[in-house]
Amino acid sequence: MALLSRVADRLYWAARYMERAEDTARIIRAYHDLVVDFPGDVVLRWEPLIAISGNVVSVDTDPDDYSGELMVLQFLIADRQNSGSIASCVAATRENLRTTREVIPREAWQTVNGLSHYTGSNAATAVRRQTRDRFLARVIDDSRRLDGVVDSTMTRANPYRLFRLGRLMERADMTTRVLGVRAAALLQTNVPGDNGRSSDPLSDEVQWMGVLRSLSALQMYQRATRGPIDGEAVVRFLLYYASFPRSVQCCLDEIRSIVLTLPSPHDVLVALDTAEHVLAEARPIASDGHELDDAMDRVQLAITGLDRAIHDRWVAAG
Amino acid sequence: MDELVGDDGTARPASAALLALIDSLGTSTLVERQQVAELDILTMGITFTVYSDGQNIDRAWPFDIIPRVIPGAEWDRTSAGLAQRLRALNLFIDDLYNDQRVIADGVFPADLLEHSANFRPQCRGIRPKHGVWAHISGTDLVRDDDGVMYVLEDNLRVPSGVSYVLENRAVAKRAFGELFSRQQIRPVDGYTDELKRLLISLAPDGVVDPQLAVLTPGIYNSAYFEHSFLAQRMGAELVEGADLVVGDDDCVYMRTITGLERVHVIYRRIDDLFLDPEVFLPESMLGVPGLMRAWKAGNVGMANAPGAGVADDKVVYAWVPDLVRYYLGEEPLIPNVPTYRTMYDDERRYVLDNIGDLVIKPANESGGYGIIIGNRATRDELRAAAEAIEADPRNWVAQPILSLSTVPTLVPGDDGSPAVEPRHVDLRPFVLTGETSYVTPGGLTRVALPKGSLVVNSSQGGGSKDTWVVDGIFEPTPAQQQFETLQHQSQLGGI
Asked: What ipTM does this complex have?
């Protein structure tokens, strides 16, 4: 079954955008849980979440919005100027699949099309707490449904592989970004002069639980790890625990197994080896915001290199 | 006249079951079903693209749930007439690009061909497979007050709408499921299989399992939905010009992740002039350099053949009945609308004298653009039309104003609340011509939604309906009746 290079590109990006929308929704939901769990006299600010967009963005502040919640969520959920917002990602998924309908199952298209109509008309109001959870749940559920449809009804051929590849690349990237958010939070909440080190063990544990939740990893972490929740163990789990499907290592392993089935993968395998090496060397200290941030930047750069290799090999060629 | 309701106000036989059901449902249930249908269209992503406010907008396809009904026996005659017409038109096109017997025999005027905007000299001497050039045609039919179905125009270039025939049916089946089990309504789903079979038959000799491709101008084209739909249904690749390349061997290839792969048949949905910048418009970004070379060498099949449009301008139209007689030795089974050719002095004089009672049409526009309806135009518009005719008589034709037939349609009534009122319709059946012919049972019924309007084009606010060719009316069996009663009760909350 032939796969046009242009179609390969669109499938890959449709998958990346869908995964990004889903993961952003998960992260927001978990962060919200964290915020409401926090004792009343501590204000957990929302700005660190901006780090998942990968940019340093300054957003307008509103005196009534004292924790930054509405403005940050407007940016992450509804802002069409932000190409990483949920609304933008879902619309981009739809546009990419609209131009590849001949290779994807009809139900897959209908799932995304339905979601796109929903997010198009509900994103603006989903910024508010009353409606937010339902909105985020719909995004996550439909994204899972899309994977279910693809998994159960799409022929295992190159179009399927490119779609999977997009999912896994974005998932690996988003896991590093969630850790980046944690690093940003560490840097922000810590006392100046404390060299970016965390001080309050209780709130520390709660925050690391939040990190695990935002990747739906809490339960699996607890089954895999004995003892209390601890930053070092969480980072190890999310980066290196190869049996957990959202760990960076697991994503890279699966990417490798797919790349090996695609035509002439040599250059991509080289980039993949580099990424694995960078990941293995990263081993950040979880409690040090600077170090965690730097390490995640390095892993993200390696993933970007892999993305470029995939693009050069299968999209730009042909 | 109305397609469903007779002059005495009672249902025509083929529509009796439908109208009885509509009566029993009442307007509010009808409105509910209409809303469900619209939601289906939205979630299935059935769209068309309109250019508006400087943007191409992907809009939900407009659909009215009350179908148009055609009795099977009438359709059989119409269908035979369409197949006949396309056989003659294809012989005509093939003749024009080769021996031009029709001109030598004095049936078709030579100067018409010289002035034709759609004749492609680059296609002279080519003999496509089966002698067929216009493989896919969308022929517009209208019914006048006299009850006769006329051919209004032949669309032989890149006619669109067939995807909506199939999608409208899918939606209508959900809206009026009970009638599909009770009546014999001819299925329309076979079209894409027939099209696939036809395209496969155009493959270069010796190719066993040809690679098919649908060539689209891209996502901003108004018919992009259809291009994608047909590719999906046929398992063909949907390609844009930039996806294709013609090699030094004059073969067509597509750029895939494994390198170049041969393409054997192209269903092109790009106009002739944009197909190949080496031969036609050099600035075209939509086409494929070398495509004509590959086609002429017989290395790729192409539907419709470049140049097929020569037979669908509105001036040639006036000769079609003569062409049917000339090539087939048969009388046309479907009549033309009487057409005045302003290039002839006497006919032009008649047109200018009676311009207020005629429809004036430019010869080479499609989509309903540039048409002037005499009794609705202002004095200035009529004067401008008369001047345009005098300036370029070859570019215009005129026809009597037909009063298109109507079909009951769910519309906002005079007081704004939903009502079922008659609205004017036309019909576009699709005809496939290859070794054999295939005509869609029914076709795309387009409906002008504003009261009294005759403009059915979806780009100008027209809607659409499913079209049912009904063969027999059956009383429901006792089991069916019981089932439907139960259904009805459960809807009322009884179960």
From this structure: 0.84
